Amino acid sequence: GALLVNERIDREELCGALSPCSLSFEIVVENPLELYSGTVEIQDINDNDPVFPSSQARLEISESVAAGARFPLESAQDPDVGINSLQTYQLSANPNFALDVQTRVDGSKYAELVLEKELDREEQRELNLVLTALDGGSPPRSAHVQIHIDVVDANDNAPVFNQSTYKASVRENTPSGTLVARISAYDLDDGPNGDIVYSFSSHTPAKVRELFALDSATGELRVKGQLDYEETKLYEIYLQAKDKGAVPGVAHCKVLVEVVDVNDNAPEVTVTSVYSPVPEDAAPGTVVALLSVTDLDSHDNGLVSDVNDNAPKVSQDSYDVYVPENNIPGIPILNVSATDPDLGRNAHLSYTLLQGDTTFGHLFSINRENGTLYVLTSLDHEDQVEFSMTVQVQDGGLPPLATNVSVSVFVTDLNDNAPMVLYPHPNTTSTYTDVVAPGTAAGHMVTKVVAVDADAGYNAWISYTLLQATDPSLFSVGLHNGEIFTARQLREDDAPEHTLVILLKDHGEPVLSTSATVSISVAEMVKEVLTDLTDVAPANDPRRHVTFYLILAVILVSAAFFITMLSVGIFKCYKWRQSKELYNSSRSTTYRTPGPFNHIDAVRGGFTPPSFYHQVYLTTDSRQSDLLCKKPFTSSPLGSRQGTIRNGEPGLYHQIVGTASRLPTPAE
């Protein structure tokens, strides 16, 4: 069972930059049959030096470049991985430049020169620096490159990118020539100093240059090679814009290209072991073969596909929502929550308000994406207390599955209505005067203030208090019913006219109130009060004639109605009497054949519609009588009747004319 190395292993040849580097294998053990999986990880050793693309680098830097400017340098490559890979850069000592080491997304390092002190061409025309790349081995391996810097006269405006980082995504099967991104820079200089040329930055890896192409004039970045999501998921591309001046200005930007996986790898089925031949007496459950299935694609592209076999599930089947009236329009009042265990599009939920009442569309709205229910207008408890609606939650499958949720919105009451006086009516010019006789004892009810409150519950409870009176000691008012009583016995020296102001308050928060004015006269009879009222009434009231005509019209309509009802009653009695006589007449002929003209007389008498009649046969026991049929009435009643006699059974029978649905028994 020992695992041996068969030949020399080169990790860089096997896995390249991939880490960790591992080789997988499977071991089959027989008798009993078992399968074991194993993995050998190839560990890296520091057996490679960092390498620069060239031994020398040349830079042209204008003397007008301000301190802080950055200049990317050629990156060194080290095929080792981990700590043995390229770890840092070092720059030889100089008074003008410092080195800034940056880390890419994949962990690799690159260096930039940072100008700390501005250059002066008159003082120094060129600089020679040494850049050293070091890995992390022990001892470390290194590489060197000579950097020659020419200080030239200024092209005082460098190109500027409109953004420092661009982001794009492409599918891994994107054909060559497809546009990925378009970078753009501007230069304020004129002529050649303002013409911009786009190019890859010097530290862009060679692999990136093989996969992408950059148009130097337009800045369009296009696909050049074949992308593979399984190899690299994200590319970090560094580009630069350089003008055509004698000392070209340079600007740099970064493009992040995300590779989107497509389902370009079929599942691979591997038969690990086959147990053959299979004995005919093998027990159920005996292992016949070992299979393994793998798919190199990611996410859903690498799983068994989903079927839309689950309807959306809601946290509860119904919701009761309470909204105070006079609410602010547009506020959210409920969030309908639902989930779907399916995947992808089959799990994408949308929410719809099923409106049984078309007016709901003006009152409520639901967010299609998250299920938030909004009230669009201010609700009024006095207008409508409850709204019932149905929310449908539907997934995005084909065909879609849906679940309905019942939502009831209850409008709670606020104290927004003051009590309204019904009696005495406050909006009339007529004077309502109640009369009480002199000497009336205490506790006598004189009148009652009637009021209502449109609110509900505690907000509609009304209390009555005496706010003002001609004689406060003479009358009192019921706190809850508004009844006005005499508080003491009336005396001869009491004033003949009394005016009471009653305050009506509800029990809401805040309290709303109104008042009613009641006039009471102390008099022996109503005639005296009417005389007083006539004296104070306007002499020429144009409405008194209208009132007279209205009263006259009511009297005439009432009289006409009474006469009509009396006539209908007399007619009904007459009809009932005729039917009773006909019934008595038929009883006397129960056991003989009726005369040939009875039916004609009945039709003429108005007891049977001329279009049909009922034919009934009776036995000697009329409780067993059967209703045979409805027959159309022919033009000859006599002929029809004779036909009935001919078609009937020879036994005793009786024919009843009319439309009654039940025949009277002999007892009746």
Automatic annotation (TrEMBL):
Pfam family, one: Cadherin
Keyword Magnesium: no
Keywords, in A-Z order: Calcium, Cell adhesion, Cell membrane, Glycoprotein, Membrane, Repeat, Signal, Transmembrane, Transmembrane helix
Membrane topology note: Single-pass type I membrane protein
GO MF term (any one): calcium ion binding
Keyword presence, Ion transport: no
Protein name according to UniProt: PCDGK protein
Span of domain Cadherin: 1-52, 53-161, 162-269, 315-421, 428-540
InterPro entries: Cadherin-like_dom, Cadherin-like_sf, Cadherin_C, Cadherin_CS, Cadherin_N, Protocadherin/Cadherin-CA
Gene: Pcdhgc3
Bilayer-spanning residue ranges: 548-571
Any one GO cellular component localisation term in the record: plasma membrane
PANTHER family assigned: CADHERIN-87A, PROTOCADHERIN GAMMA-C3
Biological processes annotated in GO: homophilic cell adhesion via plasma membrane adhesion molecules
Localization per Swiss-Prot or TrEMBL: Cell membrane
